[in-house]
Design brief:
Helix content is 11%, strand content 39%. It is mainly beta. The strands form three sheets. Strands 2, 3, 4, 5, 10 and 11 form a six-stranded antiparallel beta sheet that branches. Strands 1-8-7-12-13 form a five-stranded mixed beta sheet, with no helix packed on it. The protein is elongated and about 45 Å long.
Length: 158
């Protein structure tokens, strides 16, 4: 009896495993230069606590860049500024934005030079005119600690 129950449980578990679809992962992208203009809507920079008071610190912010064409697009950007006098190693960055539309991204590990500013750009997503975008959650991991800073959305042009 025990063998029969074990076989039924094993068969059911195998069927569930075969039917489960693999999770789709967000892309991993490299850091790029940042050139802001009036289309950039950023929250205030947040000093990463792992570097608070050390070497001048490291801060980051989450921005939403709005397009101005008839088909409005929005893009989230995680911006990191190294105010320290030496390289800072970014262990991980992540943007969570318009997940159902493919706007999420993982940011590649990278060194950031002293005084440098870099951005991790998520894919653009479509936004309805006169509507609020979703929130853009930026995560940054330095020295083993991850902190999140959220931009609470922007209204798309009408």
């Amino acid at each position: 009896m025990f063998r029969r129950a074990a076989a039924v449980i094993a068969a059911a578990a195998g069927a569930v495993a075969l039917c489960a679809a693999p999770a789709s992962a967000s892309a991993t992208v490299n850091w790029k230069p940042v050139n802001t203009n009036s289309n950039w809507h950023c929250n205030e920079p947040y000093d990463h606590p792992q570097y608070a008071g050390v070497w001048g610190g490291v801060n980051f912010k989450t921005c939403i860049v709005m397009g101005t064409s008839t088909l409005t697009k929005a893009q989230a950007v995680l911006v990191v500024q190294n105010k320290a006098r030496q390289d800072v190693y970014i262990e991980m960055g992540r943007l969570i934005f318009a997940s159902s539309s493919g706007g999420d991204v993982w940011c590649a590990p990278s060194n950031l030079a002293p005084g440098a500013t870099a951005g991790c750009y998520a894919p653009s997503v479509n936004v309805s005119n006169c509507q609020m975008t979703g929130n853009a959650h930026g995560e940054l991991k330095l020295l083993g600690k991850t902190y999140r800073w959220t931009n609470y959305g922007v209204e798309a042009p009408c």
